[in-house]
Specification:
Layout lengths: L5 H32 L6 H26 L1 H8 L1 H4 L3 H30 L3 H22 L10
Helix pairs in contact: 1-2, 1-6, 2-5, 3-5, 5-6
The structure holds protoporphyrin IX containing FE.
The site of protoporphyrin IX containing FE (HEM) has 26 residues, from helix 1, helix 2, helix 3 and helix 5.
Length: 151
């Protein structure tokens, strides 16, 4: 059963957050460098974007498994009337997931739009805007009151 892996999944999910945040920041800094240097989008912009979206996709998958294993999510779905009134329970069962799905969609839109852009400055600009907005949504959706590091 997945519930046996709950502590492991929680530690992986908590740690992976830093990889997502650092990769997102690196992708945006790469775009700024690309725009100011007017260099080609590949490989810098493409590779940094790919790393960011890949970490985010992985985090999404771990998040889905965590939701299946989580006693918090179980508590909400076993008694929604009570669970939805509790901020922490509702946050993880509904708000956190919604924020992160939106962020994931924004990052993927950025990857597609930058790939389709007609020149490198436009590609960097597209990537910077969409990755930037997705990163802001992620930062807003992270439960910062929980441990910053979990081993
Ligand atoms: C749609 C995708 C996601 C789902 C379904 C999801 C699901 C969850 C769930 C259910 C929990 C609570 C687990 C528990 O305490 O029982 C959680 C916690 C957390 N999530 Fe997500 N998550 C997703 C995406 C993300 C992303 C993209 C980030 C950050 C980059 C993130 C960062 C965190 C953090 C920092 C915690 C707290 C972990 C801890 O207390 O150590 N999640 N997530």
């Amino acid at each position: 059963m997945l519930t046996n892996y709950y502590p492991t999944l929680l530690a992986i999910h908590s740690t992976l957050r830093w990889f997502v945040l650092i990769a997102g920041l690196a992708a945006i800094i790469g775009c700024l460098i690309g725009i100011s240097g007017r260099g080609p989008f590949a490989p810098l912009g493409r590779v940094l974007g790919l790393i960011y979206v890949s970490f985010l996709d992985t985090q999404f998958l771990v998040g889905i498994l965590l939701s299946i294993a989580s006693p918090i999510v179980h508590a909400v779905f076993s008694n929604p009337a009570v669970g939805m009134k509790n901020h922490d329970l509702r946050f993880f069962a509904v708000e956190h997931t919604t924020y992160m799905v939106i962020a994931l969609a924004l990052a993927h839109i950025g990857a597609v739009k930058s790939r389709k852009a007609t020149d490198s400055v436009k590609a960097y600009r597209m990537a910077m805007i969409w990755y930037g907005i997705s990163l802001v949504v992620i930062i807003g959706g992270i439960p910062w009151w929980r441990p910053l590091i979990r081993i």
